Amino acid sequence: MTEAINKALEVLRSGGIILYPTDTVWGIGCDATNESAVAKVYEIKRRADSKSLVLLASDMDMICRYVKEVPEMAVQLVEVNDKPMTIIYPGAVGLAPNTVAEDGSVGIRIPMMDFCQKLVYKLGRPLVSTSANISGEPAPKKYDEISEEIRSAVDHIVDPSLERGSTGRASSIIKVGLDYSIEIIRK
């Protein structure tokens, strides 16, 4: 795993795009603070950049560095969570503008998979995690389901044997507000 993480880090730090297993489905990723790398991800997916992207963070400390004010409710949700959950936080800061929604919010998940957590921790900043498919097509649960078009468009493919920790299901998505509001976007 160490070798796989180091190779992925080398590509990410140079502005490259990786194809990698997450705790949910296979993802296309890049450094979420690199605007041109994020633009490449949108290009690969053939997705309008008006649609925001999900990011991975290693822990709440990292989230706190990229969100102006973390709602207390989000902290409580993360503490009791036992399955992949993306939280949409208000007030993103320090991220590539094309990762942030029009309202200034950003969706971030702390992955429940050793490989992803270690990769993001060592990167030291959030990692884009959008499903490894052309926009509108089914998300690939396993490496074998990823199209050749996607595989050939990225700069590096992480060892497929690391997909063992993936659930094969999209995360739940919950939007939280500073006013204690909660909206379930996807169960």
Note down, in words, how this protein is organized.
- This protein has 187 residues and is of the alpha/beta class.
- Helix content is 29%, strand content 19%.
- The protein is built from 6 helices and 10 strands, in the order αββαβααββαββαβββ.
- The strands form 2 sheets. The chain has a 6-stranded mixed beta sheet.
- The longest helix has 12 residues.
- The chain is globular and about 45 Å long.
- It starts with a helix and ends with a strand.
- The model has no long low-confidence stretch (mean pLDDT 94).
Sequence-ordered SSE layout with sheet pairings:
Blueprint: H1 2-13, E1 18-21, E2 26-29, H2 35-45, E3 54-56, H3 60-66, H4 72-80, E4 85-89, E5 106-109, H5 114-123, E6 127-128, E7 130-131, H6 148-153, E8 156-157, E9 172-176, E10 182-186
Helix pairs in contact: 1-5
Straight-line distance between termini = 31 Å
**Beta content:** 15-25%
Structural class: alpha/beta
Shape: globular
Helical content class: 25-40%
In short:
With 187 residues, the protein is α/β, with parallel strands linked by helices. The protein has six helices and ten strands, in the order H-E-E-H-E-H-H-E-E-H-E-E-H-E-E-E.
Notable characteristics:
187 residues; alpha/beta; 6-stranded mixed β-sheet; 4-stranded mixed β-sheet; 6 helices; 10 strands; 29% helix; 19% strand; globular
